[in-house]
Design goal:
This protein is α+β, with helices and mostly antiparallel strands. The protein has 17 helices and 10 strands. The protein has 4 domains: 124 residues, Orthogonal Bundle (Arc Repressor Mutant, subunit A), CATH 1.10.10.10; 97 residues, Arc Repressor Mutant, subunit A (Orthogonal Bundle), CATH 1.10.10; 66 residues; 76 residues, no CATH class. The chain is 45% helix and 15% strand. A hairpin with a 2-residue loop joins strand 9 and strand 10. It is globular.
């Protein structure tokens, strides 16, 4: 792959943080963790030209590195992009004249991968809303990469926009379930289950991972919990994740070398703030000393994330049997109609004996790690010819 042109890492990408529209945050609860991170990076990349351009592009490998994902697994990237196109964004707000406005749009109007480049677009109506600076919450991409739970990242996004007021205010429990993407689950209608499986783990990860500390409080009518809010304080241990917009770091020699390499101003300051000059300098020397690296910025990104081999230009190795099986399953899902997909999910869900398995499938769909063997057996029964030549006992793995 040729070196990534500098114009793909300038403009909005130099920020390292995305100003995400409140409406988009509210409806993206059912996105997987990967889809949520992907949505943020795509919005960051497009932000400067949301209104002036009808389509946007980003190098696919850079995209994968920015969300901390294996850049060789294009099938899962395709599946995630498909999920963004199929996700509905809904807004309900006051316009500049004080009139109520309701609207609905797909999160992405289209996405395509061609020649190592991801091209995508937003509908004009949604792009207008995403471009409105009065209703944005700031999402730091360096923080979002640390999250391992989609529910935790959803909680962080919905709390962080209230960081200056110190509290989210009271949310009805039904609204909170929607924000977390579990409003369609009968299991989470019971607050005991919601608290144990969603609230407590998400709060723990936000407090451990991000630059804020959140504390839940509930309000009851009788014995039933009806509302929830979150108190919000700065996390002093992780305050370094907030990027200082001051110019002090720009006078350093490491910053100058990053800029000479083609790294954007915002990204250079984010790396120096997160990793420190000594570590960045070490990785920079390592990358600049590598022979045959055609995308030094991509390689440096991977090196700072602790896995430089992911940026190597060597051809990817042959997929493992499990990866090949997953590819076949995703192809089978893709071939089904939307109605058939919904029916397949309901049928599979009805066969899961434990709540933790149903929860994992709700969060990850056909990529559910806890249900991998069951998913393989399910699709072998649905489409037997798809697994021709594969021993049946392999389905137990």
């Amino acid at each position: 792959m040729d070196e990534i042109p500098r114009d793909q890492l300038t403009g909005a990408l130099r920020r390292g943080a995305v100003k995400k529209h409140v409406a988009a945050i509210h409806v993206s609860g059912k996105l997987t963790l990967l889809q949520r991170k992907l949505s943020n990076v795509l919005l960051l990349n497009a932000y400067d030209t949301l209104i002036s351009s009808t389509r946007h592009q980003i190098d696919a490998r850079t995209l994968c590195l920015m969300i901390g994902y294996n850049s060789n697994d294009i099938d899962t990237l395709k599946q995630s992009l498909r999920g963004l196109v199929e996700t509905v964004a809904e807004w309900d707000m006051l316009d500049e004249k004080g009139q109520q406005e309701w609207g609905v749009s797909s999160l992405l109007s289209y996405a395509k991968l061609k020649g190592g480049v991801c091209e995508y677009a937003y509908s004009p109506a949604l792009a207008e809303k995403l471009n409105d600076p009065k209703v944005f919450a700031l999402i730091n991409l360096n923080i979002q990469r640390r999250f391992t739970s989609g529910h935790a990242l959803a909680l962080y996004e919905n709390c962080y926009r209230f960081v200056r007021t110190g509290s989210t205010g009271w949310w009805p429990i039904d609204l909170f379930r929607r924000l977390m993407g579990v409003d369609g689950s009968a299991y989470y209608e019971t607050f005991k289950h919601l608290n144990a499986k969603i609230i407590k783990p998400a709060v723990a990860e936000v407090n451990r991972t991000s630059n804020i500390v959140v504390t839940p409080e509930t309000r009851k009518t009788g014995r039933a919990v009806t509302d929830i809010r979150f108190r919000i304080n700065d996390n002093p241990q992780l305050a370094i994740l907030d990027i200082d917009d001051g110019g002090g770091v720009r006078h350093g020699p490491v910053y100058a070398r990053l800029r000479a390499l083609g790294v954007s101003d915002r990204l250079a300051r984010q790396w120096l703030g997160s990793h420190g000059e000594e570590q960045v300098l070490s990785k920079l020397d390592y990358v600049e000393g590598k022979e045959g690296v055609r995308s030094k910025i991509g390689y440096l990104t991977a090196a700072l994330q602790g896995d430089p081999e992911r940026a190597d230009e060597a051809p990817p190795s042959a997929p493992s049997p499990r990866a090949e099986r997953l590819r076949r399953i995703l192809e089978a899902v893709k071939a089904r109609t939307p109605t058939q997909r919904d029916a397949d999910k309901r049928l599979f869900m009805s066969q899961l004996p434990e709540a933790r398995l149903r929860d994992d499938f709700e969060r990850h769909g056909w990529l559910s790690p806890l249900n991998a063997a069951r998913i393989a057996r399910f699709w072998r029964e649905m489409v037997p010819e798809m697994f021709e030549g594969e021993p049946e006992d392999e389905m137990q793995a």
